[in-house]
Structure formats: structure tokens, C-alpha cells
Amino acid sequence: MIVAITYELIKVCKQSGARLGRVHTPHGVIETPCFMPVGTQATVKTMSPEELKTMDARIILSNTYHLFLRPGHELIARAGGLHKFMNWDRAILTDSGGFQVFSLSEMRKITEEGVQFRSHLNGDKLFLSPEKAMEIQNALGSDIMMAFDECPPFPAEYGYVKRSIERTSRWAERCLQAHARPEDQGLFAIVQGGEYEDLRKQSATDLTSMDFPGYAIGGLSVGEPKPIMYRVLDYTVPLLPSGKPRYLMGVGSPDALIEGAIRGIDMFDCVLPTRIARNGTTMTSKGRVVVRNAANAEDFGPLDPACNCYTCQNYSRAYIRHLLKADETFGIRLTTYHNLHFLLQLMRDVRQAIMEDRLLDFRDEFFAQYGLNDNDKGF
Amino acid sequence: MIVAITYELIKVCKQSGARLGRVHTPHGVIETPCFMPVGTQATVKTMSPEELKTMDARIILSNTYHLFLRPGHELIARAGGLHKFMNWDRAILTDSGGFQVFSLSEMRKITEEGVQFRSHLNGDKLFLSPEKAMEIQNALGSDIMMAFDECPPFPAEYGYVKRSIERTSRWAERCLQAHARPEDQGLFAIVQGGEYEDLRKQSATDLTSMDFPGYAIGGLSVGEPKPIMYRVLDYTVPLLPSGKPRYLMGVGSPDALIEGAIRGIDMFDCVLPTRIARNGTTMTSKGRVVVRNAANAEDFGPLDPACNCYTCQNYSRAYIRHLLKADETFGIRLTTYHNLHFLLQLMRDVRQAIMEDRLLDFRDEFFAQYGLNDNDKGF
């Protein structure tokens, strides 16, 4: 059988154990570890596909829940699929809708069959199940699909999480059965289990027995302290097969990207860079810069003198601040471009450091320059 | 003396009398007749400078009133001038602030010295005069500056308009005196006079006696029926010197651009293409298309099959409609790009028709295709 998604291990960092690799998809090769910009509604907010290519984004994430609600997966299928609809010919990963059903929608009712909920847009009564999530993602035509999972909140009680991962495993099996296009689209399973080591192990054991082409770790970066997240990674990643990509969902702060890579993660996604950009906050080599601050009013230098992105090569903090204060969307384009470029460049640097067997040194250098210490590793 | 702005007449259309020419500026040559996109707050809303260049915009307009209020002309001067501040190395025209003082601000008090008013942003008490308008525009460093004028509303009583144009002429003289950089920046005067032929003549006679490098016609497209505007052009344009550019302020509907060119106008500006784009309305070769309409929900064709712009080459009506309905600013980027490209392409077509001595035929063909007839020539 032709497999849509394959992982190629290039080397392991002798200093950290991080992996340098490639994920091969029907829409191109992704160098890993990688960060995936989020295009929730079939667009990475404010960015054109060409701009994403200029910063060498190889894969973006789009949201099944949002596209199911609007404009509808059937419409996108009639448009020729999500790639064509949004003019993006590189890889796309779609989530399963599970996380949004649990975080955005109203009036959820969970049964073994699936989840009944009301649309956060118009209150329509809707239903998602493993089979429906596959139908939607098959219609969208993403390169990587995610299995439909139940996402327990953090913290959640042990018994609840145990019942939840067992259901998630049964749903994963149903997703495999329902997936109509395995030769075109790779389906990843999601390991859950909260902060309970034995439940993470149970979930990983169940799911890896089913032979998915990739595995995600879900239920992290949902409010828990970062040391807990790192500890979960420490004992969960080794449970995943080394020949397949490992995806840490919802993580995008610079420190957590590095720490995740050190722990063997290959793929990350997060709305952080685009969301904070819209508030006028940027990531730079010296740490956070809130462009709106009065200190930048007459700063005619770039956001980050160390950055070679379009924004930093052409525009001053004073100009960007003016645009943001005047509610000009071009200002948000410039901060969004910069933040995404910053994380994609960070991942290039991480890959280079793995190549040179010095990712732990790189981490320490980056943290020192970024102004992070052991007590302050949140972005 | 070196003159910053010169006009080169290439030819006159034998069929219509329209002029094909070039305006030479310190930041490049502008083929005329031309349309100038409006970048009110030092940015053409949603567009990058590179995008404006891709559609071959040679000159943009920016607003003295807005930049005076925010971020302030002194800050822009310290940034190295408006071109550098906004990363635009082609020509810029700045208006005088007169129109905005009369249309946007509050608590106006007009004296011979100037106009006292309150900022529409924060209520600050401010003062603009001919000297101040020159100081601001000299600080901005625009290629073409506009003389500070009084803008009577439409309709206005004869005696009021007469007193107003006489003041505008005295203010124009003061602008000439106050202009500190005539070798770097060209100063255009604005002919006013409402719909009173003798007052237009008096205003034009006064101002042309002062030898400005270009002349604008102001006080039109302010609510009067288009036939009145065309009649004013019919008797005003011939009063202007043929060796200098003629600029019709605030006009940007496709029909009025063509009718203005036929009457000898060389330059136009208007917020229309960018403003309607933000409401999801587009100009196409077949007339207006309101992209938000349900009829476009499953239309996978382009906004305009006859258009070769970035938007039409890459995106469907269905996708753009989805973006607009989902409040994604990329949708407004796409409609803005298209509308500006549409008007810039229209002006290229107008110039070609002048070259071929067939602008009247072109007008009739355009109007027929655009769905305009004699009773419906408003956009």
C-alpha cells in the first residue's frame, strides 16, 4: 500500500537527542523539527500564500471545526479541495475538530457515538463523530488528518481521563476504518492522558498498536505549568515509534519549541505568533517587544536588528506603531510576518544546531539572549 | 531655477481632445492620464508598497490633515520624510489638509489667517494656515504639494463662493511665499468656484497668474450630479495652461475617470476603489460585483474573467466571499488589490485609446460593457 506520509530520520543530536528529519507529503517535503503556521479559516490571518512561501513555510494547519461550520467542507470539496480553494500548493494539516468542539462550542453532549454541540456562530445543532471528522477531512483533502479525540480539560480527575483515553482509542480505530483516502492523506492519532504517566502509556500503547503514519501528543499547553508539559514529554515521547513523525499540538512559544525539539518532537503548531501580532506584540532575539508602547514612538530602527525578514528590512518600529495606533491592517501584516518568520527562522536554527550536535548549547545561548531564566520560561 | 515637477505633452487624442503625457517628479515619471491610489495615513489600506508596484502605481496620495494629527509631520521628518517612513520610493502627492478640515474636523473657525479646528481624534485645538500647510508638506517631503484652500460645500450661495475663492487666491500667494523647497517639491494650486462659471474663471485667472507648476480643480465630486461636474470641467479646463498637469481631485468612478480624461484632465485620486473594497464591492469589466452576495457562494470563477490581476488569477469569488464573511482581512486585501488594479488598468487602456485617437469609441465600448447608459453613469 502507498502511504501518504513518511518520515525520514536524518540524524539524532548527540548532545540532546533531538531529531533532524524530513516528513514527505503529497505536497512537498517538510524539514523537521518544524513549526506550522495556523490558518484557521483557510487563511493564515493577514498573510498571502506567497508571503508564507517567502519565509519558507512548508506546511500550515487549518481547522476542521471552523471549515465545517463555514463555508462547509462540501463547498470546499466542490472548489477542488482546500489547497485549491485557498491557493496553497504546499502541505496542509487539518486538526480533527475535537479540540474546538470542547473549547469553542456550546451545549456539548458526549456519547460513545460522538459529540453533539451547538455552533458558536449561529447556534445550529451539529454532530461530530470519528466518521464525520474523517468525512470532513477527506473532503478538505489535507495531507495530514488528525483522528477525532476527546480533549479533557486541565486539570481533570484520573477516572475521567482514563475513560476518555479509552474512548479516544476506540474512536481512533473508527477513524482508521472510516478514512476513505489513506493513499492520499495520512491520518495521525493523538495520545492523550493528561499528566498521568500510566494513562499516557496506555494511550500510546493502544494507538501505536494501530499503525498510524504519525502520532501527536494532545492535551498539553492547555494551561498547565511548563515543567509539567516537559515532564509529560519526557515519558511520552519514548513511547512513540521512532520511524514516524511526532507532533506536539498547540505549542509555539520559542522556549517550548526548543524544549520540545530536545525531547524528540518533530512538528509544532500554535496561534501564538499570529495572535500576539494582532495585539502589536512581537518576538525578537532580545525577547518580547510591544510595538504599541510609547518607547517605540520615535524608534526608527527595526523590530529586531538581528532579523532579516521583510518587516525588519523595510520598516521601523515608529512606522509600525503608527499603523497599529491608526488601526491600519498593514501594521498587523508587518507584525504577523515578522513573528512567523521569527519562529520559522528559530526552527531553521534548531535544525542547524541538531546537525552540529549542539542543541543544548543553542538553547542556553538563545535563552540568555532572549532574557529567559529558569524561573521565567513562558513567553 | 530647477522646477521639481514638469509636464511633457506626448499627444492629444484627435477624436476627444484628451491628453497623453508624462509628469516628471523627483521620484519618477508618471504616465498620464493617471489614477492615484489614496494612502491617507501613510499606507494604502491593506496594501504593501510592493503590491502597489506590481500593479504599476507610479504615484500615491497621502493626507496632510491625518499625518499632521498622527503621527505628526515632525516625527515623519525625523524619520527621513514620508517616502522613507512608509517605504515608498515612487512619487507622493499630499493634499493641503483644507478638504479634511472642512469635512472631518469639528468647531471650525475660519479667519483670514487660517482655520482653527478641533481634531476629530481627540478634540485637541489645532490651527492650519497656508504657512502651516506648507511647513507640514515640506516636512513630509512629498513630490507634489497642494496649496491650502477653502472648500465650500455644495451647493453654496454665490456670494459665499466668491469671497471664498478670493481668500483661496490670497492663501495661494501665501503658500507660494511660504514654500521652502520649490526645487524638491512642486506646489499645485486649486481652482475653486463651485458651479459658477464666472467664479471658476476668476479663480483660474488669479491662480494661473502666479505660475504654479500644476493646477487642480477642487470642489467637485462633493455630491453634485455628474452632468454638473462635467459642465464645470468643460469650461474650467480650457482656462488652465496646457504646459502643466491638471488634476481633478476626489474623482475615481470608472465613468468619471474616462469623462475627465476626455475633458483634458491628467491626474485623478479617490478613496472609492479602496473604500468599496472593504465593503466587499468590486469593479469589474461587467460592472459592480458585490462579492458578499449569496449568488457568489459557490461561484468558483474569478471576480472578473477579463482581469489578469493577482486576485483574479488565483482566487475564486467563493473563496473571497468566505474570507469576507469570516472577517478575514486577507479578503479585503484581495478586493482592494483588484479594485486598484482595475482602475490602473483602465487608465492604461485610456492612454492606449488616446494614442490611437479613439477615446470616444473606447468610452462607448466601456460603458456598454460596464452596463452604464446615459441615465446611470454613477458607479
TrEMBL record, chains A, B:
The cofactor(s) it depends on are:
Zn(2+)
**Record-annotated residues binding substrate?**
D95, S96, G97, G98, F99, D149, Q192, G219
On the tree of life, the source organism's domain of life is Bacteria
The reply to whether Transferase figures as a keyword in the UniProt entry is yes
* Gene3D superfamilies named among the record's database cross-references: Queuine tRNA-ribosyltransferase-like (3.20.20.105)
Could you tell me the EC number(s) of this protein? 2.4.2.29
Q: Does the keyword Oxidoreductase apply?
A: no
Please share the entry's free-text remark on the cofactor.
Binds 1 zinc ion per subunit.
> Which pathway does the database say it acts in?
tRNA modification; tRNA-queuosine biosynthesis
Region ranges (RNA binding): 250-256, 274-278
A biological process from GO = tRNA queuosine(34) biosynthetic process
Q: Which residues form the active site?
A: D95 (proton acceptor), D269 (nucleophile)
For the ligand (Zn(2+)), the binding residues are: C307, C309, C312, H338
Provide the Gene Ontology terms for cellular component. cytosol
Catalyzed reactions per annotation: 7-aminomethyl-7-carbaguanine + guanosine(34) in tRNA = 7-aminomethyl-7-carbaguanosine(34) in tRNA + guanine
GO terms of molecular function: metal ion binding; tRNA-guanosine(34) queuine transglycosylase activity
Alphabetical keyword list: Glycosyltransferase, Metal-binding, Queuosine biosynthesis, Transferase, tRNA processing, Zinc
Per UniProt, residues of the tRNA-guanine(15) transglycosylase-like domain are 16-370
Sum up the protein's function in the record's words: Catalyzes the base-exchange of a guanine (G) residue with the queuine precursor 7-aminomethyl-7-deazaguanine (PreQ1) at position 34 (anticodon wobble position) in tRNAs with GU(N) anticodons (tRNA-Asp, -Asn, -His and -Tyr). Catalysis occurs through a double-displacement mechanism. The nucleophile active site attacks the C1' of nucleotide 34 to detach the guanine base from the RNA, forming a covalent enzyme-RNA intermediate. The proton acceptor active site deprotonates the incoming PreQ1, allowing a nucleophilic attack on the C1' of the ribose to form the product.
Record family assignment:
Belongs to the queuine tRNA-ribosyltransferase family.
* Oligomer and partners: Homodimer. Within each dimer, one monomer is responsible for RNA recognition and catalysis, while the other monomer binds to the replacement base PreQ1.
Name of the protein this chain belongs to: Queuine tRNA-ribosyltransferase
The upper taxonomy is: Bacteria, Bacillati, Bacillota, Bacilli, Bacillales
